[in-house]
Amino acid sequence: SSPLAVDAGHRAVIFDRFRGVQDVVVGEGTHFLIPWVQKPIIFDCRSRPRNVPVITGSKDLQNVNITLRILFRPVTAQLPRIFTSIGEDYDERVLPSITTEILKSVVVSTA
């Protein structure tokens, strides 16, 4: 078996060639995997910042430039589900659409 070192602030999801993605989330520390059969997918679970710029229109038909800064991190218990349904790049796929909608609603309510 080969060792897997999971750093502080990270979690790993194990993909097994025979059983698929395991439901167990592997925490920090050293773990052992079966070579060729098991493959780790490591996620950063620390809070990370992201800036999302949006240009939207107000009620009086003016363009409004807003940048939203968010801190995000995945729910560690949901990592196997996040990996199977969205993928490793979940933040690139999910955050832009959510933040754009939120910013548009904020501009509409304040304008």
TrEMBL record:
Pfam family, one: Band_7
Compartments it resides in: Mitochondrion inner membrane
Domain of life: Eukaryota
Name of the protein in its database record: Prohibitin
Family: Belongs to the prohibitin family.
Cross-referenced InterPro entries: Band_7 (IPR001107), Prohibitin (IPR000163)
Domain Band: 2-111
An annotated GO BP: mitochondrion organization
Gene field: Phb
Function: In the plasma membrane, cooperates with CD86 to mediate CD86-signaling in B lymphocytes that regulates the level of IgG1 produced through the activation of distal signaling intermediates. Upon CD40 engagement, required to activate NF-kappa-B signaling pathway via phospholipase C and protein kinase C activation.
CDD domains: SPFH_prohibitin (cd03401)
Principal place of residence: mitochondrion
Keyword rRNA processing tagged: no
Key words, A-Z: DNA synthesis, Membrane, Mitochondrion, Mitochondrion inner membrane
GO cellular component terms, A-Z: mitochondrial inner membrane
Gene source species: Pomatorhinus ruficollis
